[in-house]
Each structure stands twice: as C-alpha cells, then as structure tokens.
Amino acid sequence: MEQHAVEQYGKAEPAGLDIVVTTMASDSHTWNLVFLQLLLEELGHRVTNLGACVPDELLVAECRRIEPDLIVLSSVNGHGFHDGLRVVAALRACPELIRTPTVIGGKLGIAGSGSGSGVSERQRKLLTAGFDGVFEEGGSVMEFTSFVDSLSPAAKALPPGSGCLPDGPEALTAESGVLL
C-alpha cells in the first residue's frame, strides 16, 4: 500500500488558552459558570468548568493538575471579596500557580458594585492580594474578553489597536452588565 505525504500550506491558527472556571466554596450558583464557559469556548478557548461550591483544596489541586493558562473565579452570592482573598492566597502559595493569571468577577460584595468611577478600594485590595483582574457586576463583557484576549499568543503578536475592540475608555461601558 502506497503512502502519500500530506503537505500543509499556510500557518496553523494559534491554540486557545486552557482556562479553569469555578465558583468558590460558599457559592452554589452555576448559570454564571455556564455563561462563562460558553463565552470562552466561543472565543476559541478550552474550558474546564469545576462547578459550584468548590473547596479551596480541590481548586488548588485541580489547577496544579490542569496547569491552566488562566483561572476565572466567579461569584454571585456577594461573598466574592472575602472568599476571593482566601482563595487567591491559597493559589499564590502554590509554586506551580504563583504566576498563573487569575481573575475574579461578579457580585463581590453584598452592597453591590464597588466600581463607581475608577478602581474601588475593594478592587485595589483584591489586586494587591494577587488577582490579575477584577471584574465587578455591572462591568463590561468586552472588558473581560479584552483581558482574556491579551493573554493569547496571537494577541501579543498584533500591534496595539489592531484587535477587534475599539480603543479608549469610551469603548467599555458599565451599562452592559455581566456577572462573572
């Protein structure tokens, strides 16, 4: 039987990111995770959805096993700020995960969004604790997807302003509303 060599023309598209999506131990909400998974998969990424009420130890163990390119923590119950501080400390204490980009979003406090204008004190504390991004309720899906796109190898090869999102602060609006 004769075998033929297969020739490949052009460049293969860069692979998407491996992303872990989860809530924290106190949060039993799942629709936010389904939305995030579908959004990220539509953008070409591979998503592992750990589900709701994930204990800290399980989250760290699964992230060590998977070695994701991004960890997305989502909160709907309003305890995201306090839970997030604890979880990011556990993730950053693990040498294998210390540099893994990690974001948190959704309803991070029971008093609503702390974003108002500019970066809130709550966002500052979460960033200082080790998160690479904080996306509070009422924020823009475009802001989140822009962050994710910035992690992709393809985005790093593009010159600034050549992506599909408009540049400048007017491009992102708080009115579009999404709970991560």
Main features:
180 residues; alpha/beta; five-stranded parallel sheet; 34% helix; 14% strand; globular; disordered C terminus
Kindly describe this structure.
Helix content is 34%, strand content 14%. It has helices spanning 31-42, 56-66, 80-92, 121-129, 141-151, 153-157, and strands at residues 18-22, 46-51, 70-75, 102-106, 133-136. A five-stranded parallel sheet has the order 2-1-3-4-5, sandwiched between helices. α3 links the parallel β3 and β4. The longest helix is centred in the middle third of the chain and has 13 residues, at 80-92. The protein is globular, with a radius of gyration of 18 Å.
- Strand order, main sheet: write it out: 2-1-3-4-5
Largest sheet: 5 strands, parallel
Quickly count the helices: 6
* Spatial shape: globular
**Helix percentage:** 25-40%
Order of helices and strands: EHEHEHEHEHH
Percent strand equals 5-15%
Average pLDDT taken over every residue: 81
Layout: helices, strands, pairs:
Blueprint: E1 18-22, H1 31-42, E2 46-51, H2 56-66, E3 70-75, H3 80-92, E4 102-106, H4 121-129, E5 133-136, H5 141-151, H6 153-157
Parallel strand pairs: 1-2, 1-3, 3-4, 4-5
Quick recap:
The chain is of the alpha/beta class. Helix content is 34%, strand content 14%.
